[in-house]
């Protein structure tokens, strides 16, 4: 698995600690879910599909669900 190093600011670190305490999650799991959610919502559907061509079924299902949800938000704003 790819490793990246970054530094959390103190507010984010506190929020992560509290979230992990409440939801009994692992830091790596939380970071991966948060980044996936953010990136999928920031990228176009085609770019996400291209990036995840060899993704597993669960990831593909998540991407489809997130894209549908994003499109719903767009439609409500207009």
Brief rundown of the structure:
This protein has 78 residues and is mainly α. 74% of the residues lie in helices and 0% in strands.
Distance between the termini: 41 Å
Overall outline? elongated
Name the helix and strand elements from N-terminus to C-terminus, one letter apiece: HHHH
The share of residues in helices is over 70%
The whole-number mean of residue pLDDT values reads 79
Oligomeric state of the chains in view: single chain
Radius of gyration: 15 Å
Uncertain residue ranges: none
Q: Which secondary-structure class do the elements indicate?
A: mainly alpha
Estimate what percentage of residues fall within beta strands.
Answer: under 5%
Total beta strand runs: 0
Largest sheet geometry: none
Count of alpha and pi helical runs: 4
Question: What can you tell me about this protein's structure?
Answer:
The protein is mainly alpha-helical and 78 residues long. 74% of the residues lie in helices and 0% in strands. The protein has 4 helices and no strands. It has helices at 10-23, 27-42, 45-51, 57-77. The longest helix is centred in the last third of the chain and has 21 residues, at 57-77. It is elongated, with a radius of gyration of 15 Å. The mean pLDDT is 79.
What's the structural blueprint in terms of helices and strands?
Blueprint: H1 10-23, H2 27-42, H3 45-51, H4 57-77
Keywords:
single chain; 78 residues; mainly alpha; 4 helices; elongated
